[in-house]
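Consider the following assembly input.
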Amino acid sequence: DAKTTQPPSMDCAEGRAANLPCNHSTISGNEYVYWYRQIHSQGPQYIIHGLKNNETNEMASLIITEDRKSSTLILPHATLRDTAVYYCIVRAPGAGGTSYGKLTFGQGTILTVHP
Amino acid sequence: DARVTQTPRHKVTEMGQEVTMRCQPILGHNTVFWYRQTMMQGLELLAYFRNRAPLDDSGMPKDRFSAEMPDATLATLKIQPSEPRDSAVYFCASGPLIGNTIYFGEGSWLTVV
């Protein structure tokens, strides 16, 4: 799986948009970009994923550059409860392959939302 | 609300004792993962199963760790004998055969003294 690079920490004011960047310059054509987050003392939580189109769900938006070498997770209106470690992960698909589900976590970005 | 259930949530044990952690995957999910998290190493994949068969356990210390799925509703991770360096949070996760998302449990917090 391709390696990702994220800033170690970021701050955001409550109510403002949080934009978390991720570099994945060695991503392959069939690899997806996933975002998970881990709130203190809890298990990692799925946020969103995408291949090449921008994606949006009730939690966040994912913007993937045209060359797919980087992406940005956007939390449109951050709240104090969004304080967590955010992981950007690149993974090949394939329900039938042995790589399925092998999410390899890096160090992530510690996002602190302050009042 | 379907969720992955892990027991025990917290365990303190003495070095040399056997520890067994249990996981109930989400009903219908046929892929199960065991991860370990420490401050130094972060989240590491120990092993994972598909349809109860082990697919990859290369991340697991073979001499003391073992992982099994006795049936589709139960996965176990056993450490025998336990050592202080095994102190960590152990997460179980499950996912469907078709689909891209895996779901994590709340973890089993293990302390070996």
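The interface with chain A takes residues 4, 31, 33, 35, 42-43, 45, 48, 50, 55-56, 91, 93, 95, 97-107 of chain B (CB under 8 Å). Ask yourself how this observation constrains the way the partners meet.
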